[in-house]
């Protein structure tokens, strides 16, 4: 079914990340939908490992310049864009010196999770939402990949609940076996600042607990990895949300 507006929100995509199932899958899904005549956009964080020169990223001045307030602190939002190498598919990068300049993704050189991973996820989620609105581009389908993107539906159904911009968009969440890590214990205060409370994930805030929580805020949950770890599989089996077992790239448009 061509002529759909499809938004991929992801933490990984080939060739910006290599050797992971998520990165390969998002690349293939986005290209397939793009080549079939759909209007496809991809949003991801501009992690420090992504070379701006190699991939020809450039700042979009008209989209940059907004500030995202997190826990009463203003953080400038920088938007960069690039075409997927060899393709006419645009990838937008959410950037911020404080959150995404570092070379590692989620843990430091000693393997300890960053204290501000929760803030980075909030900033990414809100940055994507605000930028899409500024683009004046209303997606029909929002496909979430990667734990940071799981904050998007939570925000859409709470903080942005009275905003009708995304009211007709269908949200799909793909589940992957990502490495779990604790999130800052003060995340409850930061979410409360945005009038978000009562989440079960706040009892034990981790990367995985927020992915499981977000299953309740989407229209469909899909296995991104064919076999999920025990906690994710339990969450998948218990959710009341519509769900699908693993589907290969050739069949993804049936989900849409």
From TrEMBL:
<keyword id="KW-0808">Transferase</keyword>
<feature type="domain" description="Starch synthase catalytic">
    <location>
        <begin position="5"/>
        <end position="179"/>
    </location>
</feature>
<dbReference type="InterPro" id="IPR013534">
    <property type="entry name" value="Starch_synth_cat_dom"/>
</dbReference>
<dbReference type="Pfam" id="PF08323">
    <property type="entry name" value="Glyco_transf_5"/>
</dbReference>
<protein>
    <recommendedName>
        <fullName>starch synthase</fullName>
        <ecNumber>2.4.1.21</ecNumber>
    </recommendedName>
</protein>
<keyword id="KW-0328">Glycosyltransferase</keyword>
<dbReference type="GO" id="GO:0009011">
    <property type="term" value="F:alpha-1,4-glucan glucosyltransferase (ADP-glucose donor) activity"/>
</dbReference>
């Amino acid at each position: 079914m061509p002529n759909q507006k499809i938004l991929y929100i992801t933490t990984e995509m080939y060739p910006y990340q290599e050797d992971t199932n998520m990165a390969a899958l998002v690349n293939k899904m986005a290209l397939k939908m793009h080549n079939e005549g759909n209007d496809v956009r991809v949003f991801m964080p501009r992690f420090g490992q992504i070379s701006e020169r190699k991939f020809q990223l450039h700042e979009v001045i008209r989209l940059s310049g907004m500030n995202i307030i997190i826990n009463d602190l203003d953080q400038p939002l920088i938007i960069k864009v690039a075409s997927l190498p060899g393709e006419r598919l645009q990838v937008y990068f959410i950037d911020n010196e404080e959150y995404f300049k570092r070379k590692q993704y989620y843990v430091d050189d000693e393997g300890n999770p960053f204290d501000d991973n929760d803030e980075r996820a909030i900033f990414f989620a809100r940055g994507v939402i605000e930028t899409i609105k500024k683009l004046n581009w209303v997606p029909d389908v929002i496909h979430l990949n990667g734990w940071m993107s799981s904050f998007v539906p939570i925000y859409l159904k709470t903080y942005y609940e009275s905003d009708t911009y995304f009211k007709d968009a269908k949200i799909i969440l793909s589940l992957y076996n990502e490495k779990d890590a604790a999130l800052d214990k003060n995340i409850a205060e930061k979410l409360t600042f945005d009038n978000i409370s009562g989440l079960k994930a706040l009892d034990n805030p981790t990367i995985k607990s927020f992915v499981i929580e977000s299953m309740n805020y989407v229209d469909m949950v899909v296995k991104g990895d064919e076999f999920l770890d025990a906690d994710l599989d339990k969450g998948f089996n218990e959710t009341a949300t519509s769900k699908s077992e693993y589907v290969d790239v050739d069949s993804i448009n049936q989900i849409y």
